[in-house]
């Protein structure tokens, strides 16, 4: 009855109850009954609630009021109408202050109502004491008072407070149970969505403390469905992120990673590139810190002509192990296939810097030479004017030419070409000279 969605519209449209909407104290009592209908017996001593119930139920509760209509006045309908019109035009009736109705005698409370009222008062007092203990972090005492309050009188706040006290004590299973009971009771009495959402959020936090991230995420989502808040959303996102990390860590298995690598190698030899990619991807999941998984998958990507993906995998491998030369070589191959010859040469230079004892020097030099020859071939037949125009549009080449050290070296090489060979022993100088040669700034005899 008090949860009727048209309740306030009905009360406003009835002259007997319209004035009650302006009474803040009465409206607070009415809102409380909407949350806890079980308390209706405590408010029945207020005669205004009889009027409200009459309007909501469509029953005339004004027993003993004088009858109205034609039969009561002894006049026809026209006579009543004329009298009503005449009364409305009388100025003294319009201007006279409205006479306050005589207070009706309060109905005597029965024993059940008195007992319920006393129980609620006692329960509220216990709740108050429980909160004082909670603030002092005396959780056992707080739990006892909240439990006794609930036994005396049912109120969702007692249960949610009980769940909070048990949570702070470290009794997460007890907190979950208390909050679930609060939600169940809240559904029965149509409690505020915010209170229900708070209970779901605390259940989620308790499950997270227990390490059950799946249940935590589930209850955080339920809390957001009831009432969305940024605090619970942040907890939800953090739990999801933690779950992803935990799942990834629990999947790591070096033995399974080795099996996946061997399978990938077998599929690669069979030229079954898609299955090889799948196997190496499984290896990466099983052993994310092993650079071989990324490097081997990059080799497959080159075969599948997916060169940008190959470069990304090589970067991942190099990040894990900067001295893993195989990754540099495959990255250079990918750039060469993309006709990014300058980048290919740069990668070869990086590989040389990290190649301990020059174990891979020959393979690196071969790849570098291929890139240089490809650059020469691409610019074959270019006039000197065209070369100068292209050089001026290349900011990297312009920067090298403006470097005072490089200007001095180039001047020495011009006067004594043999001096250049001595400077090429420096890896950085060599890389810059190679870029100038590739760009056509330095022309060497073939």
TrEMBL record:
Keyword annotations: Cytoplasm, Repeat, TPR repeat
GO molecular function: ATPase inhibitor activity; Hsp90 protein binding
GO cellular component, one term: cytoplasm
Annotated signal sequence range: none
TPR repeat feature ranges: 123-156, 197-230, 257-290
Annotated spans, Disordered: 66-122
Subcellular locations according to the entry: Cytoplasm
Annotated Basic and acidic residues bias: 113-122
PANTHER family found in the cross-reference section: STRESS-INDUCED-PHOSPHOPROTEIN 1, TPR REPEAT CONTAINING PROTEIN
Assembly: Part of a larger complex that includes HSP70, HSP90, and immunophilins.
Name of the protein in its database record: TPR-like protein
Species: Pleomassaria siparia CBS 279.74
């Amino acid at each position: 009855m008090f949860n009727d969605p048209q309740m306030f519209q009905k009360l406003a449209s009835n002259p007997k109850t319209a004035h009650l909407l302006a009474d803040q104290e009465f409206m607070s009592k009415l809102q409380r009954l909407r949350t806890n209908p079980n308390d209706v017996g405590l408010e029945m001593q207020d005669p205004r609630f009889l009027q409200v119930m009459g309007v909501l139920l469509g029953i005339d509760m004004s027993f003993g009021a004088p009858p109205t209509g034609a039969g009561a006045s002894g006049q026809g309908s026209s006579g009543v109408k004329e009298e009503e019109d005449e009364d409305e035009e009388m100025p003294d009736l319009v201007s006279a202050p409205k006479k306050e109705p005589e207070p009706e005698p309060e109905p005597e409370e029965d024993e059940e109502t008195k007992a319920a009222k006393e129980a609620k008062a006692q329960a509220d007092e216990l709740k108050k004491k429980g909160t004082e203990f909670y603030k002092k972090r005396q959780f056992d005492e707080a739990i006892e008072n909240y439990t006794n309050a609930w036994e005396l009188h049912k109120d969702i706040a007692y249960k949610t407070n009980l769940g909070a006290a048990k949570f702070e004590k470290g009794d997460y299973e007890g907190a979950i149970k208390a909050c679930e009971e609060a939600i169940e009771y809240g559904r029965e009495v149509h409690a505020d969505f915010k209170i229900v959402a708070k209970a779901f959020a605390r259940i989620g936090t308790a499950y997270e403390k227990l390490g059950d991230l799946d249940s935590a995420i589930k209850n955080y989502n339920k809390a957001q469905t009831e009432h969305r808040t940024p605090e619970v959303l942040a907890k939800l996102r953090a739990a999801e992120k933690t779950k992803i990390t935990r799942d990834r860590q629990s999947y790591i298995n070096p033995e399974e990673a080795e099996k996946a690598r061997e399978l990938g190698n077998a599929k690669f030899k069979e030229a079954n590139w898609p299955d090889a990619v799948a196997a190496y991807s499984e290896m990466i999941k099983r052993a994310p810190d092993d650079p071989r998984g990324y490097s081997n998958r990059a080799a497959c990507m080159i075969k599948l002509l997916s060169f940008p993906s190959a470069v990304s995998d090589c970067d991942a491998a190099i990040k894990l192990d900067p001295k893993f030369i195989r990754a540099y070589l495959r990255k250079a191959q990918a750039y060469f296939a993309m006709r990014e010859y300058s980048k290919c040469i740069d990668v070869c230079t990086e590989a040389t810097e990290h190649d301990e004892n020059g174990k891979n020097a020959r393979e690196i030099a071969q790849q570098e030479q291929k890139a240089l020859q490809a650059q020469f071939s691409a610019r074959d037949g270019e006039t000197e004017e065209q070369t100068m125009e292209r050089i001026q549009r290349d900011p990297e080449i312009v920067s090298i030419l403006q470097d005072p050290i490089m200007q001095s070296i180039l001047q020495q090489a011009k006067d004594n070409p043999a001096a250049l060979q001595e400077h090429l022993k420096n890896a950085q100088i060599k890389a810059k000279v190679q870029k100038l040669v590739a760009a056509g700034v330095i022309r060497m005899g073939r």
